[in-house]
Design brief:
By secondary structure, the protein is of the alpha+beta class. It folds into two domains: 1-35, no CATH class; 51-224, no CATH class. The chain contains seven helices and ten strands.
Length: 233
Amino acid sequence: MRTFKNIVANVWAVVFAEAEDGALIDLSSITEGAVQKYDDNDFDAIASAGYLARLQLMTSNSAQCKSGAFPINHYALVSGQSYQDLGESLDILVIAWRPKALDTSDGVITAYDKEDKEFQRIVAASDVKDSGCMFGPEFLVYIPSIKEFATFFFGSKSGRREAPAVRGRMHKAATMKAQECKGKSHTWFSPTTMPCTTPFEQPDMDKLQEELQKFNNPPKSEIETAEGEERDR
């Protein structure tokens, strides 16, 4: 008579054999009838570790665009190592803003209190080329096409120049695209803002209040040790 231990061992022996052969592993016969304890919302909540995804214009300077993995001058919803393509033109609802300073030179250090010494240190360091430091307004936005909230940071010099146009759409819809900027020796692209003429559904008000409360009450500063997070300079 086979014991439960032997049955499990035989099942996994088959699974590993199929995996080595490159065949598709199908555990449906084993898990049929079993009820998954947690749902997709539970997964999303714990996987995000409490951080909102960020909205970013992916320019030719980004590693993902350089490698050909992501289209140049498309907007991305970035969460960890996941980059979701949102297209060349994107409608958003601008909800709120806060000051932010970011140091990516060694891990990720974020400061939100502009009177704090750490915030001021990052601002001063941002003038140094390739310092990994930047500062500017960060917006809380809602993206109706995917029904998600995100942060949108304007930390570069060209970003800070565009930020007043985004703030001018506060509590209104905006359409974000890319614009060409020209310097003495090179050209680059940055976000550009215009009124949105496309109607869309409002976000869930309870969820909006929840995200707004968290956004308006960040820690004075925080340190993340996550590796590999790319941010356009």
